[in-house]
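User: Structure please.
Assistant: Input sequence and predicted structure:
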Amino acid sequence: MNNEIKFFDKYQIDIILQSVKNPKHKLIIMIMLDCGLRVSEAISLKYQDFDFKKEMLYVTSLKKRGKDKKRAIPISKRLYHLLADHLSKKSNIKGEDYLFPSNNHISGHIGRSAVSKLCDRLQEKLGFDFLNPHAFRHTFATSHISAETPLENIKTMLGHNNYDTTLIYAQIPSEILKRNVARVTEKEQSMLQKVLSKYGIINRKTDKRISINFHKDNFSIGRIDDFNKLSENANKGINTLLIGPVGIGKSHLLENFKTEKKVLKIDDLNGLKQTLAQLLLYLYKNDKEHCRELLYGDLDLDKVKVKINRLSVRNIAEEIKKTVQDKEYILVIDSLDQLTPVGVKFLEEVKDTFTIFAAARSIKIDKSSFAWNYDRVDVKELKREKAIELTAKLSYDIQVEDPILFRNHIFEQSNGNPRVIFEIIDRYRKEPVVTNEVVKNIRHTASLGEIDMTFVVFIVFGLMYLLRYMSKELDNEALRFIGGVALVLMLLSRQLLSFTKKKFI
């Protein structure tokens, strides 16, 4: 067995489950993920293996050493709901029926290859380095280790005969080790201290944290639908225009979408003649050498370059069209923000030659004639949940006093713009120690100004409280009641103001 255990973190699990649209495919993945089954056990499940009343699954091991031994595995809530959806679409269910039947397989249920092919498609779609059925089993084991499930229970659910095998399947995450060290070395707060600290009656002790890291990662969050749309349009040969503000992630989408077609990339259409000449030379040098030989004989590439540079933009475009087959390539143009009339003319000439994927902040009406047959994709800011997820992923190594304050501040600065999130987190990386004061003081130039309404709120409550004294002069009990309410609100104002921000972990 490979010593390097592959498993998914919770963000990768969410991405995988969200990307699977077929309920049957999602069900088999979740069974392996939430029950830790081997692929051979998952595909051969029967309805009689489930006790839906007790929310338990009873699995018979298919390994020789475990034959005729059943192990009991609790059914997670999300798996239970998925099974309920599955069963609601069935009728005349018999206990001996397979959960995943197949008419084409000799055993009566789907084969291992069907699950392997599903995982291969997901791996290609999502771009993960690894995605296979056994990784779900490793994830199950590692997740339970992280949750501090007793090793005996994990061993039982996995169907192992000894602990050594269980430990091979499960990585012990660093979070577990850190919690164990903390228990040994740190003094635990009393229950009273925890309660007083939670409600802000006493200040929670915070430590300064070191925040220096040199590791960078490449990933996508909140763009699954956009990637799927681009891949679909690429395979169908549909010209596509991505529209969105600066920093929204248009270039990232164009750089990372998946397609089996050949892709040519150019930055923009400025200096169009030189750009097209380089594009044509690239084709002649790599994929279309036979075309170059037909047109230019034995001339070396440098002399061909001289001849091409003497051509007009129109003639170079015509030569490109003759060199490639219609829709053979996807032409990716990173920016059409400074589109010229010549560029518009070029796009109109090649819209049926290439599948064109282009991005722009906006296209002026007088230059939009080329785009009549384009599919428009509006790239929007990340929703709060995904922006917080991106922040957490990017800043996992940055140690801060108050993670909630940190993430909320970044969202308020960025409003879900990925580039702003990247840039402001990079700014925090320049601070060796990130205190709450540092968090508040660092701002992005593109963000809107913040208005602190705390003082205004106190003034309003104060004026309302004065009504309590005025009630005696005016003999009005309603004013006395309003003033009393204001007094209570002033006493609770600290807690109330802290609840005005949505909290995420």
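The first helix runs from residue 10 to 19.
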